[in-house]
Specification:
There is one protein chain. The chain is mainly α. Among the domains are: 36-92, no CATH class; 101-137. It has helices at residues 2-10, 17-57, 63-99, 103-136.
Length: 137
């Protein structure tokens, strides 16, 4: 019973590409405004109450240290995403693209079918040539 429920949940539907297009555009543009939002929130919190708390333990800490730390954090996360997360996303996307209405996958299957037929014909031609050469000898 549980396996049937999981199988139904795992089954995906072929949908319109418009939802995916909107999500893709949103994700692409998020790259531009997400770091600025993060830095804006951090500096606001620092200005409101963070400065007093931080200066109790680190009296030398300024807003420039905060901004530098945020930029460094963003750069480290960018490297982490480039090295680990993006390859995983691409692998999943390729798997999904191959599975759902991919015309290239259908073309590839046709090409492989035609290639196997041609190899069969070439094998027959080779065998006939070998027979002809044996009969001439």
């Amino acid at each position: 019973m549980f396996n049937r429920i999981l199988a139904k949940l795992a089954k995906q539907r072929n949908m319109s590409p418009h939802i995916g297009a909107l999500i893709n555009i949103y994700q692409t543009t998020a790259i531009m405004y997400a770091p600025m939002t993060l830095i804006g929130v951090a500096t606001t919190l620092y200005g409101l109450w963070g400065a007093e708390l931080i200066k109790e333990y680190f009296p030398w800490f300024t807003v420039w240290h905060l901004l530098g730390g945020m930029v460094a954090f963003i750069l480290v996360m960018m490297v982490f995403f480039y090295k680990i997360i993006i390859p995983s996303i691409v692998a999943f996307s390729v798997q999904q693209t191959y599975k759902h209405r991919n015309p290239m996958a259908a073309d590839l299957q046709n090409i492989l079918k035609n290639q196997n037929a041609m190899f069969g014909e070439l094998k027959n031609i080779k065998e006939r040539l070998a027979e002809l050469e044996e009969s001439k000898s």
